[in-house]
Amino acid sequence: MRSDPNAPWDVIGIGENSVDYVYRLPTYPEPNGPNAKMRISTHSISCGGQIATTLCTCASLGLRAKYLGATGTDDNGRRIRAELTGRGIDMSDAVIRDVPNRFAVILVGEGAGERIVLWDRPAELSLRARELPPEVLTTARVVHVDDTDQDAAIRAASIARDAGVHVTSDIDRVTPRTEELVAAVSIAILAEQVPEALTGEKDLEGALRKLRRLQPGMLCVTLGSRGSMLLEGDRLYYEPAYRVDVVDTTGAGDVFRGAFIYALLRGDAPADILRFANAAAGVSCTRLGAINGVPSLDDTAALLQTSVASSRQ
Fold it and tell me: How many Cβ atoms from other residues are within 10 Å of residue 20's Cβ?
């Protein structure tokens, strides 16, 4: 963490937070048969949400992070604000609305760590574009947006990018404004299903190359247990995921993005960015919960080093 309180923010995140009620089950549930009804193995409350988890990853890795988003006035709203503040995230410009905070019920099957996410978020929690402070956005080194409140995300991305700030994304769905959001950021990080949905191209490399019509910068896609892929210019990079004992995959993609931002600001080459982000995501999968699974720099380096040692044997 930087010691100078007047230094620019390393990363400002705009978008979703959540309080997650995590229930671990003996196996992945099914609608019929013996796994349609089962006893809960363990349960816990863990904070998460796309942007909140990414920012906590950035902070854990040593970056100065700030959150712009809306929280509620209920116990969950107080919980998420306390969690982010306790992890070193600046909350001074976060919005508080007199509605319940977003929450999710997450069912995790033991073994493969597969999950079902059920969530609710009042419409009143939507962040409005006019609530964004341009003078703050333009001083950051990176602005990171998701696709939860797209008006605000596109506005923030446009302000920051016009000021020469890196703008990264967490895009995991396709809406009528997704292409506009992809074009607004400078580094598009997409969930696996998005490139095909936007281009109609089943081949992932082909889909990324087609997306060049929207985005001349880095195009990255997360592939879950298969790793990640990135197109920079005309050069394609692919790095496989690390083998770990999976407990829970919740938040792994958000952790990937936080580690990607860290490695980007460190000046890593594209392949090294992917390897580092894959390792951080891998560590998070060995722990239960989203923010609770966030790794430290030492955790991530240890998995990277273990993989290097294994490849030499």
Answer: 26
| Alpha-carbon gap, residue 83 to 77, rounded angstroms | 10
- Among residues 215, 208, 207, the alpha carbon closest in space to that of 184 is found at 215
Tokens 């080093």 identify what position?
Answer: 305
Whole-structure pTM value: 0.93
* 46-100 pLDDT tens trace: 999 999 999 999 999 999 999 999 999 999 999 999 999 999 999 999 999 999 9
CA–CA separation, 139 and 71 (whole Å): 24
Give dist(CA 282, CA 304) in Å, integer.
Answer: 10
Nearest-angstrom CA–CA distance, 68 and 16? 9
Residues 6+ apart with CB under 8 A from 124: 97, 99
Q: Which of 122, 115, 126 is nearest to 150 (CA)?
A: 126
User: Which CATH fold topology does 11-17+51-67+132-312 show?
Assistant: UDP-N-acetylmuramoyl-L-alanine:D-glutamate ligase (3.40.1190)
Number of C-beta neighbours around residue 97 at 10 A: 16
Bridge partners, 214 (sequence order):
none
Give SS3 for 43. strand
Q: Which amino acid is at 131?
A: E
Contacts with 308 (C-beta within 8 Å, 6 or more apart), sequence order:
none
Q: Where do runs of H (alpha helix) occur along 138-251? A: 150-162, 178-184, 194-199, 204-210
3-state secondary structure 249-281: CCCHHHHHHHHHHHHHHHCCCHHHHHHHHHHHH
> Which DSSP helix (H) or strand (E) runs through 85?
helix 75-86
- Residue 166 carries which DSSP code? E
User: Would you give the DSSP letter of residue 127?
Assistant: P
Q: Which residues contact 234 (CB under 8 A, 6 or more apart)?
A: none
